[in-house]
Amino acid sequence: MDLIASLQCADQPGIVHAMTTAVLNCGGNIIENQQFTDHTTNTFVMRTRFETSQGLDAAHKSLNEGLGKFSPALHIRPTAEKPRALVLVTKESHCLRDLMYLLELGELPIEIPLVISNREELKSLVESHGIPFLYLPVTAENKAEQEKVMLAKIAELKIDFVVLARYMQILSSTFCAAMPGKIINIHHSFLPGFKGARPYHQAHDRGVKIIGATAHFVTADLDEGPIIEQDVAHVNHSATPEEMIALGRDIERRVLARAVKLYAEDRIFIVGHRTVVFA
Amino acid sequence: MDLIASLQCADQPGIVHAMTTAVLNCGGNIIENQQFTDHTTNTFVMRTRFETSQGLDAAHKSLNEGLGKFSPALHIRPTAEKPRALVLVTKESHCLRDLMYLLELGELPIEIPLVISNREELKSLVESHGIPFLYLPVTAENKAEQEKVMLAKIAELKIDFVVLARYMQILSSTFCAAMPGKIINIHHSFLPGFKGARPYHQAHDRGVKIIGATAHFVTADLDEGPIIEQDVAHVNHSATPEEMIALGRDIERRVLARAVKLYAEDRIFIVGHRTVVFA
Amino acid sequence: MDLIASLQCADQPGIVHAMTTAVLNCGGNIIENQQFTDHTTNTFVMRTRFETSQGLDAAHKSLNEGLGKFSPALHIRPTAEKPRALVLVTKESHCLRDLMYLLELGELPIEIPLVISNREELKSLVESHGIPFLYLPVTAENKAEQEKVMLAKIAELKIDFVVLARYMQILSSTFCAAMPGKIINIHHSFLPGFKGARPYHQAHDRGVKIIGATAHFVTADLDEGPIIEQDVAHVNHSATPEEMIALGRDIERRVLARAVKLYAEDRIFIVGHRTVVFA
Amino acid sequence: MDLIASLQCADQPGIVHAMTTAVLNCGGNIIENQQFTDHTTNTFVMRTRFETSQGLDAAHKSLNEGLGKFSPALHIRPTAEKPRALVLVTKESHCLRDLMYLLELGELPIEIPLVISNREELKSLVESHGIPFLYLPVTAENKAEQEKVMLAKIAELKIDFVVLARYMQILSSTFCAAMPGKIINIHHSFLPGFKGARPYHQAHDRGVKIIGATAHFVTADLDEGPIIEQDVAHVNHSATPEEMIALGRDIERRVLARAVKLYAEDRIFIVGHRTVVFA
User: Fold this and answer.
1) pLDDT > 70: percent of chain C
2) Where is the ACT domain (chains A, B, C, D) (predicted)?
3) The domain spanning residue B70 has which CATH number?
4) What's the whole-number mean pLDDT along residues A99-128?
5) What is the CATH number of the domain that holds D269?
6) Number of C-alpha atoms within 13 angstroms, CB side, residue D12?
7) Does A54 contact D at CB distance below 8 Å?
8) Do C127 and C216 fall into the same domain?
9) What's the CA gap between B181 and D251, in Å, rounded?
10) Is A123 at the interface with chain C, CB within 8 A?
11) Which residue did the predictor score with more confidence, B165 or D195?
């Protein structure tokens, strides 16, 4: 059995030794091992992939016993067990398409039991890929109610994380608090940044030479949560706002897909306001 | 004789035809030709490099006559005539070093008759390259006076443009207004941007995955003038603020050198708040 | 009417002037204009986009008359007239998917009247996008015959160019000669290059840190025709051959889509063994 | 005391545990830890940086005892002890300049006790940085003799590794064998690759859109040894061979500097024909 153990705790001597001892004690052989200490917050994080014939329960027992004194946040799961994602979309399809394409190709180790949208445009696209689609229109009045429906679906379908694949609604802090560190969003990014509406038009007016996208976690109390992944592309003066938007779509779908894959493989740790990503 | 003509005016039919006619009329053969219309501001810009045996005066006459009706900003110069740069530095050498290195290699078609600094650290480095160095310390009290010294040097040495190669003083709006579109600065850039002190530490705390640099024109009335060139590099969680600063230096020197080269070859046009760059 | 004129001829003085005069003479206003002289072969190429209310025939007449003395290869077409592509595939879908996705998004100004494959795997994918699919299995015995079927389809459907979107058959020199400069292929590229089977495994064994893809024209007499577009991605030691293949797919689909878009907008000129691309 | 331990051996269960136990046994606290198993060759490599107040000898004793049964190649050194590089150059200065610049900046943890060249052009540049310069002209007749001088200098100056910073002589297999895995070279790279003289001109004729550089180890029995680091830049049709060469220089100096830094920090392991690089 191939397992991934993720561990996060205050840094102190002996953790790596305790982890490797615990893995050995449940008959495990380490395949991958990555660790990092964030000195700002004195936080230690570790991701260990190992094989053992003794199974998940034995691994849980051995690691809990061996690492207990460090009071870690410890998570163990079979590598073969795919995290289940709820994907939220509005009407733009580019990010969703890439997720479904990579899923079909077997390159994205997740399951998508449901796509929810506040609009109906993408219904047939989603269903043509064999994924259920739920239309959940949102107004100022029904927002709280609709988020309850979402949370109910999350519970019912045993959803592990939420992907905002160009979902153009702001989630309430209640919803965010219910899924801490489990909501991934994608948005455009520029050098320098722009506030307000029509950012690509602002970027165009300002003559930026680079446009980009950022995948990040959504948090209730932050304007923008911890960054997971970023990428950029070069543009020049001849790009119209529309061409910049098209290029932006290409970057967004790539960056979001990478972030989802990293999440699905338990490679992301949130430490303070930033992420440690074992790519 | 190899000449570069730069033209900027309101867009209207017939400009390209008029330019090519004027070039033909002074015996010219076009080697390079680039043009662009900025539809937001209805501005037409054109850069034409051509050879003629009739010389600079004949070219001036022919182009002024042929293009006069468009009331263009028209600039013609021999390609072999190198623009003269005043370089301002403080104590960081990385950008200056790359400029001097490329100069010695013959890859940067400029002359640097003088380097001015508000500190003394780089004096021997500059002089070891055979370039005069002027120490001009700046305080709140003497700033206006020192800028006058600079402007006098600019006049005396027939300086064409100013390069701020990590010059850590803010130039007055008077100084900026005296050299409109002729002062190039370099600074760090991030996704997202950060205000205030110690930007690399802020970027580190925020866990950015990309850092960059922007070369731009300095303007009196803008927080940050038209962008000339930008580039980025990827970082991950393991980079300390110091390593990010080191990487930032590498990007800064590269981006500034490229911007100076583009300027020196008359490839940059300022149109509204942005630049058209014929790379 | 918005027109694109593409011109290629031996370089000599006066061509730009003649073109702009000819455009003026048919009431045209130049929107975009790009030109380049390849000094190795003394070849001049020019792409001019202009608007005229006098229509295509008037433009043809004016440009043919005005430019005739240069014996150019001259091509004029309405911008709105989309080139028609025959796409050939085998069983890998990634390149085809991106073409169809961009087509649906309105970002790729082509039409795809037919997809032909030597295998049946992609039939339902193609047809689900409303594009006819022709299964044309190829053996050593029937190859010449099947290529005749293809050429018949090309004639019947007024195909302008052929896109090999991971078509795993080698086209005969007869076929290539029938579509000179009109067949675009995509393949993987490495630093350094590798010959023979299983290139990603070879690249893995050699520990390359960069993998890439090249879109190029197919020619009968060259091992590999003129390069249109290339891109790369960084990998490290931890990438398995399978992960490198997956990353390679991402680069391939991006590079091929860009090459097809450049071709569809008449931005590519073949000059000797290389291309001039007005991006 | 801050130490770096590098370990390479056949993969088998328990190595990580043994290493962490051995570190604990000499009072060590792990700061950085990276490991990788190359499944093709069944090779395990590990780099562990740790602090201990017990000193280098205690660390050697503990790690040798604890890891002995794995028959590893084990190397321990104080982080503060800088590897000593012999830099070989010919007449091009770009790579050497960047190494000296980073050295002066304190960003490259190496010492350069000597630069040797088969030409005299760079003598004053090297000496102006306070580094001894040895002129060692090479002919077919004296090559073996001159390499003996080099090897004597390597012994005398306790040189740890050799950097070929655009050294245009081929080292004999005798010389290479005397410094296995300790000679770093830089050369240009293209997609596709080119054999023979004037590669940039070949790349230009072929119209490549990407040029690059590769830093690699030099080995006696391989055409080109294990790749350490690679990077690329985009070019278009307008780049002359000379401009491509200039751009190539920029990539070369960057890639070589990175490779030397990785080497100086014990981050590179040679496994078969490839490298594992803990960046």
Assistant:
1) 97
2) 4-77
3) 3.30.70.260
4) 96
5) 3.40.50.170
6) 8
7) no
8) yes
9) 30
10) no
11) B165
Q: What is the pLDDT of residues D74-96, one digit of tens each?
A: 999 999 999 999 999 999 999 99
Residue with token string 């006058």: B148
Eight-state DSSP code of residue D171: P
Q: B-chain residues within 8 Å CB-CB of A224?
A: 192
Q: Do B73 and B188 belong to one domain?
A: no
ipTM surpassing 0.85 = yes
Phi, psi of D195 (to 5 degrees): -95, 155
Average pLDDT over residues B84-94: 97
Residue A222 has pLDDT above 70, yes or no: no
- Final residue of a structural domain among C78, C105, C121: C78
Q: Which tokens is A35 given?
A: 């660790």
Taking only the tens place, the pLDDT of each residue in C205-223 is 888 999 999 999 998 866 6
Using the 3D structure, point to which of C34, C53, C78 is the last residue of a domain: C78
3-state secondary structure B204-261: HHHCCCEEEEEEEECCCCCCCCCEEEEEEEECCCCCCHHHHHHHHHHHHHHHHHHHHH
When comparing pLDDT for B89 and B202, which is higher? Answer: B89
Q: Cβ of A58 under 8 Å from any chain B Cβ?
A: no
Q: What is the arithmetic mean of pLDDT over A113-137?
A: 97
- Interface test with chain D among C237, C242, C275, by most D beta carbons within 10 Å: C237
Beta-strand pair D210-217/D227-234? antiparallel
The vertex-C22 CA angle with C16 and C28, nearest 5°, equals: 105
DSSP element (H, E) containing B37? strand B29-38
Catalytic, C266? Answer no
B223 pLDDT higher than 80 = no
Strands (E), C183-240: 183-190, 210-217, 227-234
B123 and B226 belong to one structural domain: yes
Model confidence over C115-146: pLDDT tens digits? 999 999 999 999 999 999 999 999 999 999 99
The whole domain housing D20 covers: 2-78
Residue D22 backbone dihedrals phi, psi, to 5 degrees: -65, -40
The per-residue pLDDT of chain A, averaged, comes to 94
The verdict on a CB contact (< 8 Å) between A237 and B272 is no
Candidates D92, D94, D101, D251, partner chain B, best to mutate (most B CBs within 10 A): D101
Which ranges of chain D have pLDDT less than 50?
none
- Which residues, in sequence order, are CB contacts of D173 under 8 Å at separation 6+? D220, D221
Look up residue D69 and give its two tokens. 């049964």
pLDDT-derived band at B199 (thresholds 50, 70, 90) equals confident
Distance CA A95, CA A93 (A): 6
Q: Does C185 touch chain D (CB under 8 A)?
A: no
Query: Residue type at C274?
Result: R
User: What is the pLDDT, as a whole number, of residue A206?
Assistant: 85
Distance from CA of residue D15 to its chain's centroid? 27
Question: Tokens 């200039």 sit at which residue?
Answer: D246
Residue that has been written with the tokens 């077409």 in this structure: C77
Cβ pair D154, D227 in contact under 8 A:
no
DSSP state of D197: S
What residues of chain C, 252 to 271, have a C-beta less than 8 Å from chain D? 271
Average pLDDT of B152-157?
Answer: 98
Query: Can you give the pLDDT at residue B192?
Result: 67
With a CB cutoff of 8 Å and minimum separation 6, the contacts of D168 are D90, D91, D118
Backbone angles phi, psi at B202, to 5 degrees: -60, -45
Confidence at residue B198, expressed as pLDDT on a 0 to 100 scale: 83
The residues, any chain, with a CB within 8 Å of residue A255's CB and separated by 6 or more, are: A186, A213, A214, A215, A229, A230, A231
B65 and B7 in a single domain? The answer is yes
Calculate how close chain A gets to D141, using CA atoms only, in Å: 51
Instruction: Identify the band that residue B160 occupies on the pLDDT scale cut at 50, 70 and 90.
Output: very high
Q: What is the mean pLDDT of residues C25-44?
A: 92
How far is Cα A9 from Cα A73, in angstroms, rounded to an integer? Answer: 6
